[in-house]
Amino acid sequence: MHNTTECGQVLVRIHQLVDDKKCFETIRNLRWPCGVHCPRCTSNKVIKHGSKKKQPHCRKYRCRNCRYCFDDLAGTVLCGHHQPLRTWILCLYLMGLNLSNLQIAEELDLNKDVCQQMASLLRTGINLKRPQARLNKEVECDEVYVIAGHKGYPEVVKSLGRKGRRNRLKGARGRGTLAKEKPPIFGMIQRGGEVVIKMLANVKQQTIEPLIRSAITPGSLVFTDEYDIYCRLPQWGYEHKTVCHSKGEYARDEDGDGFHEVHVNTMEGFWSLLRSWLRPHRGISQEKLPIYLGFFEYVHNVRRRGKAVLGSLLGLLLA
Question: Which domain covers residue 227, as residue numbers?
Protein backbone atom coordinates (compact mmCIF):
# COMPACT_ATOMS: atom_id res chain seq x y z
CA MET A 1 0.00 0.00 0.00
CA HIS A 2 1.42 3.37 -1.02
CA ASN A 3 1.57 6.34 1.35
CA THR A 4 -0.11 9.48 0.06
CA THR A 5 0.21 13.16 0.87
CA GLU A 6 -2.67 15.48 1.82
CA CYS A 7 -3.01 16.40 -1.86
CA GLY A 8 -3.54 12.75 -2.78
CA GLN A 9 -0.16 12.36 -4.49
CA VAL A 10 1.80 9.14 -4.04
CA LEU A 11 4.76 9.58 -1.70
CA VAL A 12 7.78 7.69 -3.00
CA ARG A 13 10.46 7.12 -0.39
CA ILE A 14 14.07 6.59 -1.34
CA HIS A 15 14.36 3.14 0.27
CA GLN A 16 11.76 1.84 -2.19
CA LEU A 17 14.17 2.52 -5.06
CA VAL A 18 17.17 0.53 -3.76
CA ASP A 19 17.87 -3.10 -4.62
CA ASP A 20 19.08 -5.46 -1.86
CA LYS A 21 20.99 -7.53 -4.40
CA LYS A 22 23.06 -4.54 -5.51
CA CYS A 23 23.65 -3.57 -1.87
CA PHE A 24 25.22 -6.95 -1.08
CA GLU A 25 27.29 -6.80 -4.28
CA THR A 26 28.62 -3.43 -3.14
CA ILE A 27 29.44 -4.81 0.30
CA ARG A 28 31.38 -7.74 -1.20
CA ASN A 29 33.32 -5.45 -3.55
CA LEU A 30 34.28 -3.10 -0.72
CA ARG A 31 35.05 -5.77 1.87
CA TRP A 32 36.86 -8.29 -0.34
CA PRO A 33 38.27 -6.51 -3.41
CA CYS A 34 40.88 -9.28 -3.85
CA GLY A 35 38.57 -12.21 -3.07
CA VAL A 36 36.77 -13.52 0.01
CA HIS A 37 38.95 -14.35 3.01
CA CYS A 38 38.11 -15.67 6.45
CA PRO A 39 37.58 -12.90 9.06
CA ARG A 40 38.89 -15.23 11.79
CA CYS A 41 42.14 -16.65 10.34
CA THR A 42 42.43 -14.44 7.19
CA SER A 43 42.78 -17.54 4.98
CA ASN A 44 41.61 -17.27 1.37
CA LYS A 45 40.70 -20.97 1.25
CA VAL A 46 36.99 -20.22 1.41
CA ILE A 47 34.06 -21.99 -0.24
CA LYS A 48 30.48 -20.84 -0.72
CA HIS A 49 28.06 -22.32 1.76
CA GLY A 50 24.61 -21.29 0.54
CA SER A 51 22.74 -18.14 1.52
CA LYS A 52 20.68 -16.84 4.43
CA LYS A 53 16.97 -17.66 4.41
CA LYS A 54 15.75 -14.23 5.48
CA GLN A 55 18.34 -12.44 3.33
CA PRO A 56 18.64 -14.51 0.14
CA HIS A 57 21.19 -12.13 -1.39
CA CYS A 58 23.53 -12.51 1.59
CA ARG A 59 26.04 -15.25 0.80
CA LYS A 60 27.36 -17.69 3.40
CA TYR A 61 30.87 -19.13 3.39
CA ARG A 62 32.95 -21.76 5.12
CA CYS A 63 36.69 -21.56 5.70
CA ARG A 64 38.56 -24.76 4.81
CA ASN A 65 41.44 -23.76 7.07
CA CYS A 66 39.67 -23.15 10.42
CA ARG A 67 36.16 -24.42 9.47
CA TYR A 68 34.64 -21.08 10.49
CA CYS A 69 31.25 -20.31 8.91
CA PHE A 70 30.46 -16.67 8.13
CA ASP A 71 28.52 -14.46 5.76
CA ASP A 72 28.94 -11.16 3.92
CA LEU A 73 28.22 -9.07 7.04
CA ALA A 74 29.86 -11.23 9.73
CA GLY A 75 32.00 -9.27 12.17
CA THR A 76 30.76 -5.85 11.04
CA VAL A 77 28.46 -3.31 12.64
CA LEU A 78 25.86 -4.17 9.97
CA CYS A 79 25.50 -7.77 11.16
CA GLY A 80 22.71 -9.17 13.33
CA HIS A 81 19.92 -6.65 12.72
CA HIS A 82 16.40 -7.15 11.47
CA GLN A 83 16.42 -4.05 9.24
CA PRO A 84 17.38 -4.88 5.62
CA LEU A 85 20.83 -3.93 4.40
CA ARG A 86 19.48 -1.31 2.02
CA THR A 87 17.98 0.57 4.99
CA TRP A 88 21.35 0.65 6.77
CA ILE A 89 23.18 1.84 3.65
CA LEU A 90 20.61 4.55 2.97
CA CYS A 91 20.73 5.62 6.61
CA LEU A 92 24.51 6.01 6.33
CA TYR A 93 24.16 7.87 3.02
CA LEU A 94 21.67 10.35 4.52
CA MET A 95 23.92 10.79 7.56
CA GLY A 96 26.71 11.77 5.17
CA LEU A 97 24.37 14.41 3.75
CA ASN A 98 23.82 15.62 7.35
CA LEU A 99 20.12 14.93 7.70
CA SER A 100 18.88 14.78 11.27
CA ASN A 101 17.76 11.47 12.75
CA LEU A 102 14.13 12.59 12.53
CA GLN A 103 14.50 13.49 8.85
CA ILE A 104 16.12 10.12 8.13
CA ALA A 105 13.32 8.31 9.97
CA GLU A 106 10.71 10.07 7.85
CA GLU A 107 12.58 9.41 4.60
CA LEU A 108 13.10 5.71 5.34
CA ASP A 109 9.67 5.23 6.95
CA LEU A 110 11.20 4.13 10.28
CA ASN A 111 10.22 4.61 13.88
CA LYS A 112 12.21 7.59 15.18
CA ASP A 113 13.61 5.59 18.12
CA VAL A 114 14.75 2.79 15.80
CA CYS A 115 16.41 5.33 13.51
CA GLN A 116 18.09 6.97 16.51
CA GLN A 117 19.59 3.61 17.53
CA MET A 118 20.75 2.85 13.98
CA ALA A 119 22.40 6.24 13.50
CA SER A 120 24.06 6.05 16.91
CA LEU A 121 25.43 2.59 16.12
CA LEU A 122 26.81 3.75 12.77
CA ARG A 123 28.42 6.88 14.24
CA THR A 124 29.98 4.82 17.03
CA GLY A 125 31.35 2.35 14.47
CA ILE A 126 32.91 5.19 12.45
CA ASN A 127 34.49 6.63 15.62
CA LEU A 128 35.98 3.30 16.64
CA LYS A 129 37.60 2.68 13.24
CA ARG A 130 38.56 6.12 11.96
CA PRO A 131 42.32 6.69 11.78
CA GLN A 132 44.04 9.14 14.10
CA ALA A 133 45.29 12.14 12.14
CA ARG A 134 48.90 13.24 12.63
CA LEU A 135 49.52 16.95 12.07
CA ASN A 136 52.80 18.70 11.27
CA LYS A 137 54.45 21.77 9.70
CA GLU A 138 51.99 24.65 10.30
CA VAL A 139 49.14 23.88 12.72
CA GLU A 140 46.46 26.10 14.22
CA CYS A 141 44.87 25.45 17.63
CA ASP A 142 41.71 27.01 18.97
CA GLU A 143 38.70 26.21 21.11
CA VAL A 144 34.98 26.79 20.75
CA TYR A 145 32.10 26.34 23.17
CA VAL A 146 28.79 24.71 22.27
CA ILE A 147 25.59 24.37 24.28
CA ALA A 148 24.98 20.72 25.17
CA GLY A 149 22.81 19.54 28.04
CA HIS A 150 21.45 16.08 28.77
CA LYS A 151 18.78 15.75 26.05
CA GLY A 152 17.30 12.24 26.15
CA TYR A 153 18.83 11.40 29.54
CA PRO A 154 16.14 12.22 32.16
CA GLU A 155 17.93 10.22 34.86
CA VAL A 156 20.94 12.54 34.58
CA VAL A 157 18.70 15.61 34.80
CA LYS A 158 17.08 14.24 37.98
CA SER A 159 20.50 13.58 39.51
CA LEU A 160 21.30 17.28 39.03
CA GLY A 161 18.30 18.19 41.18
CA ARG A 162 16.41 20.25 38.64
CA LYS A 163 13.38 19.89 36.40
CA GLY A 164 13.68 19.21 32.70
CA ARG A 165 13.65 22.24 30.40
CA ARG A 166 10.84 22.86 27.97
CA ASN A 167 12.60 25.69 26.16
CA ARG A 168 15.98 25.76 24.50
CA LEU A 169 18.98 25.42 26.80
CA LYS A 170 20.79 28.74 27.22
CA GLY A 171 24.45 28.58 28.09
CA ALA A 172 26.15 30.92 30.52
CA ARG A 173 28.23 33.77 29.07
CA GLY A 174 31.97 33.39 28.75
CA ARG A 175 34.09 30.27 28.64
CA GLY A 176 32.14 27.13 29.49
CA THR A 177 32.76 23.69 30.94
CA LEU A 178 31.06 20.33 30.75
CA ALA A 179 29.52 20.87 34.21
CA LYS A 180 28.00 24.18 33.03
CA GLU A 181 26.41 22.37 30.04
CA LYS A 182 28.57 24.41 27.69
CA PRO A 183 31.42 22.02 26.90
CA PRO A 184 34.54 23.22 25.10
CA ILE A 185 35.62 21.65 21.83
CA PHE A 186 39.35 21.79 21.27
CA GLY A 187 40.51 21.84 17.67
CA MET A 188 43.84 21.40 15.85
CA ILE A 189 44.08 21.81 12.10
CA GLN A 190 47.05 21.55 9.74
CA ARG A 191 47.02 24.23 7.09
CA GLY A 192 46.03 22.47 3.90
CA GLY A 193 45.61 19.19 5.81
CA GLU A 194 43.52 17.31 8.33
CA VAL A 195 41.77 18.36 11.51
CA VAL A 196 41.43 16.85 14.99
CA ILE A 197 38.61 17.87 17.35
CA LYS A 198 37.83 16.67 20.87
CA MET A 199 35.19 17.57 23.46
CA LEU A 200 36.76 18.35 26.84
CA ALA A 201 35.46 18.76 30.38
CA ASN A 202 37.35 22.07 30.54
CA VAL A 203 40.17 23.86 28.77
CA LYS A 204 43.34 23.83 30.86
CA GLN A 205 47.00 23.12 30.17
CA GLN A 206 46.77 19.65 31.72
CA THR A 207 43.80 18.73 29.50
CA ILE A 208 45.15 20.03 26.17
CA GLU A 209 48.77 18.87 26.57
CA PRO A 210 48.13 15.13 25.93
CA LEU A 211 45.93 15.97 22.94
CA ILE A 212 48.56 18.23 21.40
CA ARG A 213 51.36 15.71 21.98
CA SER A 214 49.33 12.85 20.46
CA ALA A 215 48.21 14.79 17.37
CA ILE A 216 50.98 17.28 16.50
CA THR A 217 54.51 16.28 15.54
CA PRO A 218 57.16 17.89 17.79
CA GLY A 219 58.94 20.80 16.15
CA SER A 220 55.83 21.96 14.27
CA LEU A 221 54.93 25.63 14.17
CA VAL A 222 51.71 26.17 16.15
CA PHE A 223 49.56 29.28 15.75
CA THR A 224 47.10 30.24 18.52
CA ASP A 225 45.36 33.25 19.98
CA GLU A 226 46.64 34.96 23.13
CA TYR A 227 44.88 32.57 25.58
CA ASP A 228 47.43 31.75 28.29
CA ILE A 229 46.77 27.97 28.18
CA TYR A 230 49.06 27.88 25.13
CA CYS A 231 52.04 29.58 26.78
CA ARG A 232 53.85 26.28 27.46
CA LEU A 233 53.92 25.15 23.84
CA PRO A 234 57.67 25.95 23.51
CA GLN A 235 58.34 23.83 26.63
CA TRP A 236 56.42 20.96 25.02
CA GLY A 237 58.68 21.07 21.96
CA TYR A 238 56.80 23.32 19.51
CA GLU A 239 57.42 26.65 17.85
CA HIS A 240 54.69 29.08 18.86
CA LYS A 241 53.27 32.28 17.41
CA THR A 242 50.19 34.13 18.64
CA VAL A 243 47.72 36.66 17.36
CA CYS A 244 46.03 38.99 19.85
CA HIS A 245 42.27 39.08 19.26
CA SER A 246 41.63 41.26 22.33
CA LYS A 247 43.56 44.08 20.62
CA GLY A 248 41.65 43.67 17.38
CA GLU A 249 44.47 41.78 15.67
CA TYR A 250 43.33 38.83 13.56
CA ALA A 251 46.27 38.37 11.18
CA ARG A 252 49.84 39.66 11.17
CA ASP A 253 52.60 39.92 8.58
CA GLU A 254 55.94 39.31 10.31
CA ASP A 255 58.33 39.01 7.37
CA GLY A 256 57.06 41.94 5.31
CA ASP A 257 56.11 39.93 2.22
CA GLY A 258 52.53 41.20 2.25
CA PHE A 259 51.15 37.83 3.31
CA HIS A 260 49.63 37.77 6.83
CA GLU A 261 50.78 34.33 7.94
CA VAL A 262 50.18 34.63 11.71
CA HIS A 263 46.49 33.84 12.29
CA VAL A 264 44.02 31.16 13.33
CA ASN A 265 41.53 31.92 10.57
CA THR A 266 41.68 28.37 9.18
CA MET A 267 40.44 27.01 12.50
CA GLU A 268 37.84 29.77 12.80
CA GLY A 269 36.52 28.84 9.37
CA PHE A 270 36.31 25.22 10.42
CA TRP A 271 34.22 26.21 13.47
CA SER A 272 31.72 27.85 11.11
CA LEU A 273 31.43 24.56 9.19
CA LEU A 274 30.96 22.64 12.45
CA ARG A 275 28.21 24.94 13.70
CA SER A 276 26.38 24.54 10.38
CA TRP A 277 26.78 20.75 10.64
CA LEU A 278 25.35 20.62 14.17
CA ARG A 279 22.46 23.01 13.52
CA PRO A 280 20.00 20.56 11.80
CA HIS A 281 20.17 18.22 14.80
CA ARG A 282 18.45 20.79 17.06
CA GLY A 283 20.46 20.19 20.19
CA ILE A 284 22.77 17.25 20.95
CA SER A 285 23.37 15.88 24.44
CA GLN A 286 26.89 16.01 25.81
CA GLU A 287 26.72 12.22 26.09
CA LYS A 288 26.29 11.91 22.29
CA LEU A 289 28.27 14.97 21.17
CA PRO A 290 31.67 13.17 20.93
CA ILE A 291 30.42 10.67 18.33
CA TYR A 292 28.89 13.49 16.26
CA LEU A 293 32.21 15.35 16.40
CA GLY A 294 34.17 12.23 15.42
CA PHE A 295 31.83 11.57 12.49
CA PHE A 296 32.19 15.13 11.22
CA GLU A 297 35.96 15.02 11.68
CA TYR A 298 36.18 11.92 9.48
CA VAL A 299 33.85 13.34 6.79
CA HIS A 300 35.85 16.57 6.72
CA ASN A 301 39.21 14.79 6.50
CA VAL A 302 38.26 12.47 3.60
CA ARG A 303 37.25 15.55 1.60
CA ARG A 304 34.27 13.86 -0.02
CA ARG A 305 30.55 14.56 -0.12
CA GLY A 306 27.36 12.77 -1.19
CA LYS A 307 27.85 9.42 -2.94
CA ALA A 308 31.64 9.71 -2.65
CA VAL A 309 31.59 9.91 1.15
CA LEU A 310 29.24 6.90 1.31
CA GLY A 311 31.93 4.70 -0.22
CA SER A 312 34.48 5.95 2.31
CA LEU A 313 32.11 5.42 5.25
CA LEU A 314 31.17 1.89 4.14
CA GLY A 315 34.78 1.02 3.45
CA LEU A 316 35.78 2.11 6.96
CA LEU A 317 32.96 0.13 8.64
CA LEU A 318 33.84 -3.00 6.65
CA ALA A 319 37.60 -2.75 7.18
Answer: 138-283
